[in-house]
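Sharing a chain and its predicted structure for anyone who wants a worked example. Both blocks are below, sequence first, C-alpha coordinates second.
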Amino acid sequence: MILCPVTLPDGRQNRVRVLRTEKKLGIHGSPTCVVEFDRAEGFLLGTRGQGFRAMLDLMNGARLGVAAQGIGIAEAAYQQARGYAADRVQFGAPILHQPPVKAMLAIMLASIQAARALLYRTCAMMDLTEAIRLYLQTERGEKDPENASLREEVDRNTQLTRFLTPLCKYFATEISNQVTRAGIQIHGGIGYMSETPAVHYHSDSIITTIYEGTSEIQASFALKEMSKGALFAILDQLRAELEGLKGSYPDLVAKVGQGIEWINQSLPALMGDPRYALLHAKRLCDMVIDVVVSVEFLQQASLSAQENLLAKAYIERQMLVVEMNAKRISSGDATLLQAIDKILGIPPA
Protein backbone atom coordinates (compact mmCIF):
# COMPACT_ATOMS: atom_id res chain seq x y z
CA MET A 1 0.00 0.00 0.00
CA ILE A 2 1.46 3.28 -1.14
CA LEU A 3 0.58 6.82 -0.04
CA CYS A 4 1.03 9.25 -2.92
CA PRO A 5 0.53 12.85 -1.71
CA VAL A 6 -0.28 15.75 -4.01
CA THR A 7 2.36 17.87 -2.24
CA LEU A 8 5.66 16.27 -1.19
CA PRO A 9 7.20 16.82 2.29
CA ASP A 10 9.68 19.37 0.87
CA GLY A 11 6.85 21.42 -0.61
CA ARG A 12 7.31 20.33 -4.21
CA GLN A 13 4.26 19.44 -6.30
CA ASN A 14 4.14 15.66 -6.81
CA ARG A 15 3.69 14.34 -10.36
CA VAL A 16 0.11 13.24 -9.81
CA ARG A 17 -3.04 14.90 -11.14
CA VAL A 18 -6.75 14.30 -11.65
CA LEU A 19 -7.51 14.08 -15.37
CA ARG A 20 -11.30 13.98 -15.19
CA THR A 21 -14.33 13.14 -13.07
CA GLU A 22 -16.22 10.10 -14.32
CA LYS A 23 -19.89 10.33 -15.33
CA LYS A 24 -21.68 7.60 -13.39
CA LEU A 25 -25.13 6.10 -13.29
CA GLY A 26 -25.62 7.02 -9.63
CA ILE A 27 -24.05 8.16 -6.32
CA HIS A 28 -23.20 11.53 -7.85
CA GLY A 29 -22.32 12.88 -4.41
CA SER A 30 -19.21 10.67 -4.40
CA PRO A 31 -16.80 11.75 -7.16
CA THR A 32 -14.90 9.00 -8.97
CA CYS A 33 -11.87 10.28 -10.84
CA VAL A 34 -9.20 9.23 -13.30
CA VAL A 35 -5.82 9.90 -11.66
CA GLU A 36 -2.54 10.10 -13.60
CA PHE A 37 0.75 9.14 -11.94
CA ASP A 38 3.70 10.40 -14.00
CA ARG A 39 6.77 9.09 -12.13
CA ALA A 40 5.13 10.28 -8.93
CA GLU A 41 6.79 9.69 -5.57
CA GLY A 42 5.05 7.43 -3.05
CA PHE A 43 5.62 6.23 0.50
CA LEU A 44 5.21 2.66 1.73
CA LEU A 45 2.48 2.20 4.34
CA GLY A 46 2.84 -0.58 6.90
CA THR A 47 4.97 -3.65 6.26
CA ARG A 48 6.20 -4.55 2.80
CA GLY A 49 4.22 -7.46 1.40
CA GLN A 50 1.28 -6.97 3.79
CA GLY A 51 -0.65 -4.44 1.71
CA PHE A 52 -3.06 -6.99 0.29
CA ARG A 53 -3.88 -8.30 3.76
CA ALA A 54 -4.51 -4.74 4.95
CA MET A 55 -6.77 -4.15 1.96
CA LEU A 56 -8.80 -7.27 2.77
CA ASP A 57 -9.21 -6.11 6.38
CA LEU A 58 -10.44 -2.77 5.06
CA MET A 59 -12.86 -4.44 2.66
CA ASN A 60 -14.30 -6.76 5.32
CA GLY A 61 -15.37 -3.77 7.37
CA ALA A 62 -16.50 -1.89 4.27
CA ARG A 63 -18.72 -4.78 3.21
CA LEU A 64 -20.85 -4.34 6.31
CA GLY A 65 -20.93 -0.60 5.63
CA VAL A 66 -22.12 -1.19 2.08
CA ALA A 67 -24.76 -3.63 3.38
CA ALA A 68 -26.02 -0.85 5.65
CA GLN A 69 -25.91 1.56 2.71
CA GLY A 70 -28.05 -0.80 0.64
CA ILE A 71 -30.57 -1.13 3.46
CA GLY A 72 -30.72 2.64 3.88
CA ILE A 73 -31.38 3.19 0.18
CA ALA A 74 -34.03 0.46 0.17
CA GLU A 75 -35.73 1.94 3.23
CA ALA A 76 -35.86 5.37 1.60
CA ALA A 77 -37.28 3.85 -1.60
CA TYR A 78 -39.92 1.95 0.36
CA GLN A 79 -41.00 5.04 2.31
CA GLN A 80 -41.17 7.05 -0.92
CA ALA A 81 -43.23 4.37 -2.68
CA ARG A 82 -45.60 3.89 0.24
CA GLY A 83 -46.19 7.61 0.51
CA TYR A 84 -46.85 7.90 -3.21
CA ALA A 85 -49.22 4.92 -3.14
CA ALA A 86 -51.21 6.56 -0.35
CA ASP A 87 -51.52 9.83 -2.35
CA ARG A 88 -52.00 8.52 -5.89
CA VAL A 89 -55.72 8.14 -6.59
CA GLN A 90 -56.85 5.80 -9.35
CA PHE A 91 -60.40 4.53 -9.96
CA GLY A 92 -61.62 6.66 -7.08
CA ALA A 93 -59.24 5.35 -4.38
CA PRO A 94 -55.54 5.51 -3.47
CA ILE A 95 -53.58 2.75 -5.22
CA LEU A 96 -52.38 1.71 -1.76
CA HIS A 97 -55.69 -0.17 -1.48
CA GLN A 98 -55.06 -2.18 -4.65
CA PRO A 99 -54.07 -5.78 -3.71
CA PRO A 100 -51.12 -5.99 -6.16
CA VAL A 101 -49.67 -2.76 -4.78
CA LYS A 102 -50.22 -3.90 -1.20
CA ALA A 103 -48.41 -7.14 -1.98
CA MET A 104 -45.46 -5.33 -3.56
CA LEU A 105 -45.10 -3.01 -0.58
CA ALA A 106 -45.38 -5.89 1.89
CA ILE A 107 -42.59 -7.80 0.11
CA MET A 108 -40.45 -4.66 0.00
CA LEU A 109 -40.89 -4.15 3.75
CA ALA A 110 -40.27 -7.80 4.63
CA SER A 111 -37.14 -7.86 2.46
CA ILE A 112 -35.71 -4.77 4.14
CA GLN A 113 -36.44 -6.18 7.59
CA ALA A 114 -34.78 -9.46 6.60
CA ALA A 115 -31.61 -7.74 5.41
CA ARG A 116 -31.56 -5.60 8.55
CA ALA A 117 -32.00 -8.66 10.80
CA LEU A 118 -29.07 -10.44 9.16
CA LEU A 119 -26.83 -7.38 9.39
CA TYR A 120 -27.71 -6.68 13.03
CA ARG A 121 -27.11 -10.32 13.98
CA THR A 122 -23.66 -10.18 12.38
CA CYS A 123 -22.71 -6.83 13.93
CA ALA A 124 -23.93 -7.91 17.37
CA MET A 125 -21.80 -11.05 17.12
CA MET A 126 -18.77 -8.97 16.11
CA ASP A 127 -19.28 -6.55 19.00
CA LEU A 128 -19.68 -9.37 21.51
CA THR A 129 -16.61 -11.17 20.17
CA GLU A 130 -14.48 -8.04 20.37
CA ALA A 131 -15.68 -7.40 23.95
CA ILE A 132 -14.72 -10.94 24.97
CA ARG A 133 -11.35 -10.64 23.24
CA LEU A 134 -10.56 -7.41 25.11
CA TYR A 135 -11.74 -8.93 28.38
CA LEU A 136 -9.42 -11.92 27.94
CA GLN A 137 -6.49 -9.52 27.63
CA THR A 138 -7.12 -8.14 31.13
CA GLU A 139 -5.75 -9.62 34.35
CA ARG A 140 -9.25 -10.60 35.43
CA GLY A 141 -9.88 -12.28 32.09
CA GLU A 142 -6.66 -14.27 32.26
CA LYS A 143 -7.67 -15.66 35.65
CA ASP A 144 -11.31 -16.30 34.69
CA PRO A 145 -12.14 -20.01 35.21
CA GLU A 146 -14.09 -19.84 31.93
CA ASN A 147 -11.04 -18.54 30.06
CA ALA A 148 -10.69 -21.60 27.82
CA SER A 149 -14.37 -21.70 26.84
CA LEU A 150 -14.37 -17.95 26.18
CA ARG A 151 -11.38 -18.34 23.86
CA GLU A 152 -13.24 -21.09 22.03
CA GLU A 153 -16.23 -18.77 21.70
CA VAL A 154 -14.02 -16.05 20.22
CA ASP A 155 -12.59 -18.49 17.67
CA ARG A 156 -16.03 -19.84 16.77
CA ASN A 157 -17.60 -16.39 16.44
CA THR A 158 -14.66 -15.13 14.38
CA GLN A 159 -15.23 -17.96 11.94
CA LEU A 160 -18.95 -17.21 11.80
CA THR A 161 -18.48 -13.49 11.20
CA ARG A 162 -16.11 -14.23 8.32
CA PHE A 163 -18.95 -16.30 6.88
CA LEU A 164 -21.83 -13.93 7.66
CA THR A 165 -20.08 -10.76 6.46
CA PRO A 166 -20.18 -11.61 2.72
CA LEU A 167 -23.73 -12.91 3.18
CA CYS A 168 -24.77 -9.53 4.61
CA LYS A 169 -23.22 -7.64 1.73
CA TYR A 170 -24.65 -9.96 -0.90
CA PHE A 171 -28.16 -10.09 0.53
CA ALA A 172 -28.66 -6.46 1.56
CA THR A 173 -27.43 -5.03 -1.74
CA GLU A 174 -29.40 -7.45 -3.91
CA ILE A 175 -32.48 -6.64 -1.82
CA SER A 176 -31.77 -2.94 -2.34
CA ASN A 177 -31.83 -3.43 -6.12
CA GLN A 178 -35.11 -5.33 -5.94
CA VAL A 179 -36.82 -2.90 -3.58
CA THR A 180 -35.79 0.22 -5.50
CA ARG A 181 -36.89 -1.35 -8.78
CA ALA A 182 -40.30 -2.15 -7.23
CA GLY A 183 -40.45 1.46 -6.04
CA ILE A 184 -40.22 2.64 -9.64
CA GLN A 185 -43.00 0.23 -10.63
CA ILE A 186 -45.32 1.57 -7.93
CA HIS A 187 -44.75 5.11 -9.19
CA GLY A 188 -45.83 4.05 -12.69
CA GLY A 189 -44.85 6.28 -15.60
CA ILE A 190 -43.67 9.13 -13.38
CA GLY A 191 -41.23 6.69 -11.77
CA TYR A 192 -39.33 6.51 -15.06
CA MET A 193 -38.67 10.25 -15.10
CA SER A 194 -35.04 11.03 -14.27
CA GLU A 195 -35.94 13.80 -11.80
CA THR A 196 -37.99 11.54 -9.50
CA PRO A 197 -36.48 10.22 -6.26
CA ALA A 198 -37.57 6.67 -7.19
CA VAL A 199 -35.13 6.64 -10.12
CA HIS A 200 -32.32 8.11 -8.02
CA TYR A 201 -32.73 5.42 -5.36
CA HIS A 202 -32.52 2.69 -7.97
CA SER A 203 -29.50 4.13 -9.78
CA ASP A 204 -27.74 4.60 -6.43
CA SER A 205 -28.53 1.06 -5.31
CA ILE A 206 -26.96 -0.63 -8.33
CA ILE A 207 -23.39 0.20 -7.31
CA THR A 208 -23.86 -1.49 -3.93
CA THR A 209 -23.94 -4.92 -5.61
CA ILE A 210 -20.67 -4.09 -7.37
CA TYR A 211 -18.16 -2.22 -5.24
CA GLU A 212 -16.30 -3.78 -2.31
CA GLY A 213 -16.74 -7.06 -4.20
CA THR A 214 -19.61 -8.03 -6.49
CA SER A 215 -22.46 -10.24 -5.32
CA GLU A 216 -20.87 -13.15 -7.16
CA ILE A 217 -17.57 -12.61 -5.32
CA GLN A 218 -19.41 -12.44 -1.97
CA ALA A 219 -21.13 -15.75 -2.70
CA SER A 220 -17.81 -17.38 -3.60
CA PHE A 221 -16.21 -16.06 -0.38
CA ALA A 222 -19.13 -17.43 1.64
CA LEU A 223 -18.81 -20.78 -0.15
CA LYS A 224 -15.12 -20.90 0.79
CA GLU A 225 -15.98 -20.32 4.46
CA MET A 226 -18.67 -23.01 4.26
CA SER A 227 -16.04 -25.50 3.11
CA LYS A 228 -14.03 -24.70 6.25
CA GLY A 229 -16.91 -25.72 8.52
CA ALA A 230 -18.74 -22.42 8.98
CA LEU A 231 -21.94 -23.79 7.44
CA PHE A 232 -22.26 -26.64 9.93
CA ALA A 233 -21.37 -24.28 12.79
CA ILE A 234 -24.13 -21.81 11.92
CA LEU A 235 -26.69 -24.59 11.36
CA ASP A 236 -25.86 -26.09 14.76
CA GLN A 237 -26.30 -22.66 16.33
CA LEU A 238 -29.65 -22.19 14.62
CA ARG A 239 -30.90 -25.59 15.78
CA ALA A 240 -30.02 -24.69 19.36
CA GLU A 241 -31.93 -21.41 19.08
CA LEU A 242 -34.94 -23.16 17.55
CA GLU A 243 -35.08 -25.53 20.53
CA GLY A 244 -35.68 -22.55 22.79
CA LEU A 245 -38.46 -21.28 20.52
CA LYS A 246 -40.27 -24.58 20.00
CA GLY A 247 -42.64 -24.09 22.90
CA SER A 248 -43.91 -20.74 21.62
CA TYR A 249 -44.00 -21.38 17.86
CA PRO A 250 -44.03 -25.16 17.27
CA ASP A 251 -45.38 -25.07 13.70
CA LEU A 252 -43.05 -22.33 12.49
CA VAL A 253 -40.04 -23.90 14.22
CA ALA A 254 -40.83 -27.18 12.47
CA LYS A 255 -40.89 -25.42 9.08
CA VAL A 256 -37.54 -23.71 9.69
CA GLY A 257 -36.10 -27.00 10.93
CA GLN A 258 -37.21 -28.61 7.68
CA GLY A 259 -35.51 -25.76 5.82
CA ILE A 260 -32.25 -26.65 7.57
CA GLU A 261 -32.71 -30.25 6.52
CA TRP A 262 -33.29 -29.18 2.92
CA ILE A 263 -29.89 -27.45 3.03
CA ASN A 264 -28.24 -30.60 4.35
CA GLN A 265 -29.91 -32.74 1.68
CA SER A 266 -28.58 -30.50 -1.10
CA LEU A 267 -24.94 -30.62 0.04
CA PRO A 268 -23.94 -34.03 -1.42
CA ALA A 269 -24.69 -32.77 -4.94
CA LEU A 270 -22.24 -29.89 -4.42
CA MET A 271 -19.33 -31.99 -3.22
CA GLY A 272 -18.56 -33.77 -6.48
CA ASP A 273 -17.24 -30.83 -8.48
CA PRO A 274 -16.15 -27.44 -7.12
CA ARG A 275 -17.29 -25.80 -10.36
CA TYR A 276 -20.83 -27.08 -9.81
CA ALA A 277 -20.70 -25.81 -6.23
CA LEU A 278 -19.61 -22.38 -7.48
CA LEU A 279 -22.41 -22.41 -10.04
CA HIS A 280 -24.93 -22.75 -7.19
CA ALA A 281 -23.07 -20.58 -4.65
CA LYS A 282 -25.65 -17.80 -4.71
CA ARG A 283 -28.51 -20.28 -4.44
CA LEU A 284 -26.90 -21.95 -1.43
CA CYS A 285 -26.28 -18.54 0.16
CA ASP A 286 -29.95 -17.67 -0.34
CA MET A 287 -30.97 -20.86 1.47
CA VAL A 288 -28.69 -20.17 4.43
CA ILE A 289 -29.83 -16.54 4.63
CA ASP A 290 -33.49 -17.59 4.62
CA VAL A 291 -33.08 -19.91 7.62
CA VAL A 292 -30.88 -17.43 9.55
CA VAL A 293 -33.38 -14.62 9.00
CA SER A 294 -36.30 -16.91 9.89
CA VAL A 295 -34.72 -17.69 13.27
CA GLU A 296 -34.03 -13.98 13.83
CA PHE A 297 -37.66 -13.14 13.05
CA LEU A 298 -38.86 -15.81 15.48
CA GLN A 299 -36.64 -14.27 18.16
CA GLN A 300 -38.43 -10.96 17.57
CA ALA A 301 -41.94 -12.37 17.11
CA SER A 302 -42.95 -11.78 20.73
CA LEU A 303 -42.20 -8.04 20.55
CA SER A 304 -45.44 -7.10 18.77
CA ALA A 305 -48.31 -8.45 16.72
CA GLN A 306 -46.71 -6.94 13.61
CA GLU A 307 -43.41 -8.76 14.22
CA ASN A 308 -45.33 -11.99 14.81
CA LEU A 309 -47.16 -11.67 11.51
CA LEU A 310 -43.93 -10.79 9.71
CA ALA A 311 -42.20 -13.90 11.05
CA LYS A 312 -45.12 -16.13 10.03
CA ALA A 313 -45.41 -14.65 6.53
CA TYR A 314 -41.67 -14.76 5.89
CA ILE A 315 -41.19 -18.33 7.07
CA GLU A 316 -44.19 -19.72 5.20
CA ARG A 317 -43.02 -18.07 1.96
CA GLN A 318 -39.26 -18.52 2.17
CA MET A 319 -39.16 -22.11 3.38
CA LEU A 320 -40.91 -23.03 0.12
CA VAL A 321 -38.12 -21.20 -1.71
CA VAL A 322 -35.51 -23.10 0.31
CA GLU A 323 -37.15 -26.39 -0.70
CA MET A 324 -37.23 -25.36 -4.36
CA ASN A 325 -33.56 -24.30 -4.33
CA ALA A 326 -32.53 -27.54 -2.63
CA LYS A 327 -34.34 -29.59 -5.27
CA ARG A 328 -32.74 -27.61 -8.08
CA ILE A 329 -29.28 -28.19 -6.64
CA SER A 330 -29.89 -31.89 -6.03
CA SER A 331 -31.39 -32.53 -9.46
CA GLY A 332 -28.27 -31.53 -11.38
CA ASP A 333 -24.56 -32.20 -11.59
CA ALA A 334 -21.43 -30.87 -13.28
CA THR A 335 -22.76 -31.85 -16.74
CA LEU A 336 -25.01 -28.79 -16.46
CA LEU A 337 -21.91 -26.67 -17.07
CA GLN A 338 -21.37 -28.45 -20.38
CA ALA A 339 -24.94 -27.68 -21.38
CA ILE A 340 -24.41 -24.02 -20.49
CA ASP A 341 -21.26 -23.95 -22.64
CA LYS A 342 -23.25 -25.30 -25.60
CA ILE A 343 -26.02 -22.75 -25.09
CA LEU A 344 -23.45 -19.95 -25.04
CA GLY A 345 -21.45 -21.40 -27.91
CA ILE A 346 -18.31 -21.79 -25.82
CA PRO A 347 -15.93 -24.40 -27.28
CA PRO A 348 -14.56 -27.14 -24.99
CA ALA A 349 -11.46 -26.08 -23.05
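Comments welcome. The mean pLDDT is 95.
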